[in-house]
Structure formats: C-alpha cells, structure tokens
Design brief:
The complex is a heterodimer. Chain A is mainly beta. Helices cover 0% and strands 50% of the residues of chain A. The chains are: A mainly beta, B mainly beta.
Chain lengths: 114, 113
C-alpha cells in the first residue's frame, strides 16, 4: 500500500534560518505529491504540489522537488519567518490505487523563534 | 481552487449526544471527503461522499456512528452519533478538484465531556 514518512518533529529554528523537512513515500503507481500547512487553530491549506518526476512545486518561498529515484519530496525554505510556525504535512495522491483519498504523513511541527 | 466553510467551528458536547457538522462549498464538486484529526495526529479518512450515492466508509468507521448526507453538489453533513470522549477531534471536510488537488475546510473542533 501507499505510505508517507516525514521527519520527526518538533523542529525549532531561529528566524532567517534554512529549513528542510524530509519526506519520503512508497506508492504502487505514479503519485502526485503535496505539502499542506496547518497554522495554529486552522484547517489545512495546500502549500505546493508536484505531479510528476523532477517537477518542482513552489509557493511563499517554499520549494519541493519530486525525486522519483529517491522517492522523496523534501520541503525547503531559505529563510524562515516567525509566521511560518505551523504543522507541515506531506501527502500523496495515487489515482492508480483506485481511490481518491490522500495519504498523509504524520506531520512536522515547526516553531520559528525571533 | 475551492472555498469551503464548516459549521460549527467548534463545540463542546456531552457524551451520548450527537452533533451534525455542515460543510458548504462555493462551487459544485463531485467528490467530498470527511477526515478526522485526533489531537496531535495526522488525518484519517472517515468516508467519501459523492452526490447521488451512498457514502463509502473506510475501515474502522461505520454508518451508524458517522452518518453522512450529500443532498447536492455543494453541501454535505457528517453526524457524530452517541459521542464518547474518544470522539474528541477535529473533523474536516475536503473536496477533490482538477489537477489532483484537494482543498480542506477550516475544521470543526469537537470536545466531548
């Protein structure tokens, strides 16, 4: 079956530090990959996506590249801000699995301190 | 994209009672989903709700406990029945749109005492 593995949190960084949150996946087909962000007290927001190998998704200074050879989709940002403090979820969608549900990782909580 | 609203945003309920959560979408969508997010955990799919057909429940979730209605292409409800403290969670609805994207509502934070 499909699965997503994220690095364990929480992650605490100082403002302007470089961020990497690792995500690897297992899928039976050719999935689309996503990063969602959940700010405190809110629902999930789609942050970025990539639908095929070597695609790079980007949004709000965040980037992630779909690496088929390493089955990875690591999230990066060059300079984090306090406002980036949130929980980040990596997810995959595999239409070949016959279901339209997303498979989520466990989430990584990021705290950015001034 | 899609804009999704949920009501109520939060509630505190007594055990043994039921709560119905509403999900409204600003455009017509075929596929809607209900997820549960237990405290500090990831999301677990409860069921898929397509208009005009019975909801499809995931393993571990049953219709008697989580009845779902989908009367049209912009609206759905999820009822949490005969609640216990273990049902305390965030319940989120989501919709599937083009380009393999799913969008989520803001969630309903349920506390059962």
């Amino acid at each position: 079956g499909n699965s997503v593995t994220q690095m364990e949190g929480p992650v605490t960084l100082s403002e302007e530090a470089f961020l990497t949150i690792n995500c690897t996946y297992t899928a039976t087909g050719y999935p689309s990959l996503f990063w969602y962000v959940q700010y405190p007290g809110e629902g999930l927001q789609l942050l970025l996506k990539a639908t095929k190998a070597d695609d790079k998704g980007s949004n709000k200074g965040f980037e992630a590249t779909y690496r088929k050879e390493t089955t990875s989709f690591h999230l990066e940002k060059g300079s984090v801000q306090v406002s980036d403090s949130a929980v980040y979820f990596c997810a995959l969608f595999d239409s070949g699995a016959g279901s339209y549900q997303l498979t989520f990782g466990k989430g990584t909580k990021l705290s950015v301190i001034p | 994209s899609a804009v999704i609203s949920q009501k109520p945003s939060r509630d505190i309920c007594q055990r043994g009672t039921s709560l119905t959560i509403q999900c409204q979408v600003d455009s017509q969508v075929t596929m809607m989903f209900w997820y549960r997010q237990q405290p500090g955990q990831s999301l677990t799919l409860i069921a898929t709700a397509n208009q005009g057909s019975e909801a499809t429940y995931e393993s571990g979730f049953v219709i008697d406990k989580f009845p779902i209605s989908r009367p049209n292409l912009t609206f759905s409800t999820l009822t949490v029945s005969n609640m216990s403290p273990e049902d305390s969670s965030i319940y989120l609805c989501s919709v599937f749109v083009s380009s393999y994207e799913q969008y989520f509502g803001p969630g309903t934070r349920l506390t059962v005492t």
